[in-house]
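Input:
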Amino acid sequence: MRRLRAWFSRLGGVFDKERSERELSAEMESHLAMHVEDNIRAGMSPQQARREAIMKLGGVERTKESYRERRGLPLVESFSQDIRHGFRMLRKSPGFTAVAILTLALGIGANSAIFSIVQGVLLAPLPYSQPDRLVLIREYNRTLKHPVWVSHPDFLDWQRGSRSFQQMAGQGGSDDYNLTSPGTPERLEGRTISSGFFSTLGVNLALGHEFSPQEDKHGGAPVIIISDRLWRERFHGSADALGKSVALDEVDYTIVGVAPAGFWFGDNADFYIPVGQGNPLLLEDRTIPRIVCIARLKPEVTIAQAQSELDAVQENLDRLYPAADRGLATHVAQLKQEIVGDTGGMLLLLLGAVGIVLLIACANVANLLLARSAARTREFAIRSALGASRARIVRQLLTESVLLSLAGGGLGLLAARWSLSVALAAAPGELLRRSANISVNVSVLFFAFCASVAVGILFGLAPALKSSKADLQTSLKAGGRGFTSSHHRAQSSLVIVQMALTLVLLAGAGLLFRTIHHLWEVNPGFDPHNVITFKVGLSPSLAKTPSSKQLAYKQLIERIRQIPGVQAADLTVLVPLSQEVNSGPFLVGTQESASIPEAPRALFYWTGPDYLRVMGIRLLRGRYLTTDDTTNSPPVAVIDSALARTYFPGKDPIGQILTIPHWRPVQIVGVVGHVQHWDLGNLENPESTTVGANRFIQNQIYASLYQLSDEWIANFYDGITVTVRTPLDNAAVLPAIEAVVYGTGGDQPVYSVRTMQQLVSESMSSQRFPMTLLGAFAGLALLLASVGIYGVISFSVAQRVNEIGIRMALGAEKRNIFRMVVGHGLRLALAGLAIGAAAALILARLLSSFSHLLYGVGASDPLTFATVSLGLTAVAVLACYLPARRATNVDPMAALRYE
Amino acid sequence: MGEKADVWQGTLALMVLKTLQAMGPLHGYGIARRIEQTSGDLLAVNYGTLYPALLKLEQEGYISSEWGFSDNNRKAKYYKLTRAGRKQLNKEERDWEQTTAILARFLAPGEERS
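Output:
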């Protein structure tokens, strides 16, 4: 009670300060007056009496100070006082303040940007209800030791046979269609989904209902769920849209639902149609994996339990359908883990790297503060003489440094917002899957705030403790130039730490740079120069039947070949490095396999006869495909050198037979060089179980599109790619190509235009992204560290002007002085290099083990380490050069007179 | 000051209250002189430390203050005990006696076992 009362009264004291200050002065005055009177009465002289009274009181100001501390709430009061004083101090030295804030803004800004990526990708939950209960289920191929998608019949059997899940649903392939009505024609991206897809994710439709099991069947009524964007653009966001129809490739679909705004599953589709209504050739075959299967676990069921139940279901399928399901197991994993993929390690690595930048920035500001505190020793001495306790001074200094770092943090957040968009532009696909989540949001603000306060205390504490300890007497006498050797030691160790950390970042960036350099030198197996690829949305009127579709494309290619400057052009279903897949099983010889999952798999390039020439893929033996290979001639195939080496070792593969399930036995007529289909360095982790799935397939088979039977034409011509070789500039040829495409049929959009050079460059994005960022961080670190060493050396020169003057007066030559100063800096740099090299070796190990980022360089690549060490030393020497020059220009007479 | 401050502050408060009980309303200088005389100069009072202690007692409501005039017709701030202050003084006196009695028993000779 009493405490509370006292507290309130003190709270009052915070406000009514002026009056009580006057009263305090009056009280002190009357106290002294009475004491002086008594003393005079006791026989002292007036001066003596006053002096004795003041001494007895213990000093007027001191008494007032301790009285004041009791009066208000000292913490609140001195805090607001500290803040005001802090602002005053910072305003008084704008140069120092600007440099410190900018330094911190760089550090905190970079950290906030990376943190927002980590937060958006790793920490933020998926945008579904109870996302941790969602799993992704795939089949695991025991022969290939790799998970694969599941076939539609197996998926339906899983749905029927399992009890562990509240609900199970699937997404089939993607389908692109031309939307022709309502409104202007447009190429749209669609996804096929099963019934219950949205409710499994726990997402409510904005309007209408999702597909019923009856609709999700072959022969069901054509129904469609459209995206929010389509709904707004084509139907003005009106509820009347339900029941209306949209025409896709000249088929009318009835709208039954509208997906909520911002709905996302893997990518942003324009519309959804039932998977069960798709091509029965693909859907009803148990050997064709089509479905991305998701499910919601029942509340008490663990992933392991679900896994073992599904395994039992799958074993049963194995017995029933040995040809299709032998050797398959199931693979249940958390959905989030599958979506985030391998990027986790890389992101944490970057977060670590950017943390190092912040440490270096802190070291710089700490150095600045140390130098400044030397100039302020006198101020602190006076303050403590006036009764300020040491804690009070430390608090004051910490308030100043936290003020600095908060200002830096605020500026840094602005920088983060800007740099985030720059960084994301270079981000690899795995990251972009969740890029919608990445923004400077509340948790990033919180992160930046905490980082700022922590950083403020971190870099403020050492200088604050150092300067508050200063000895009163000597500092007052030294007149503000008292810089102790412990200050020097602190500054030197900060510089050493900076150098070490910078070397670590430089080495990391250097290794990644060498990796990219090596990747550019990898022979991709084709000639990426002067090749354009694009897709054409064929006019539905030209594609009524499979043969008319084929004919339309054939005529299109003929016209493109006649464009001046086009050397060669042809069609292909698969383009290397495009991240698209068309894989299937094959068998050597004519025997049929008992189980398709146990057969080896290859990438199938169904192409026109000229494709291999367009891409500049080298013929090793036999012949290319020709226009004579048609449905009327014996089926033939061209294989790549990898397949030839593995399955025909020491034999001539020409004339040998391969059996392709779903097709027939084919004769090998040629062998071409292996093409890097997945990425240039085979960097993908073969142990990885994440979404990229069958990236390990290296065998490649080329066969002619004109040998496809009619039933398969529809499947392979959907989304087919045109490849064109031309030495002309992209921009020069495209208008001619577009004119040709539009000439054959009014409304055919040309889309996905890319050069092979672009694809090559994009394939390196998972290396280039960390390299760019690490490079930027290393550059930043180098800049900060060189400023740091420059500052410390020039400060020590300024402190030693006297000594240098004496040395010169005693006959030291300029050369010696120069060497002395540079040597000082060099010693610091070399100590940092030694520590940094050790740390960098550890980091490089991490880099190579983490996410398979390195290619063609060892983790301890001596060339990289030597280069960055030399570079850093050179920068350090350069940074010492200016202060050293200044030292040699010291005029001994002036220096001595100055003292 | 330092570690001893708490003990010093506690006993100082008790001495201030006791002084005000014995002398009636009194100004800061008077309280300081009185404490110095009574303690037989054993406590070399730094008069300045008295004022924060007075402020604390006032904030807690044990004493109140008002401006008045001294014998020499000098303006001074007079402190006097409140009712709560009298009660607190009785309580603290009892506590103090108890503490000293216990300590006396501890410090009495002859009771140590060897």
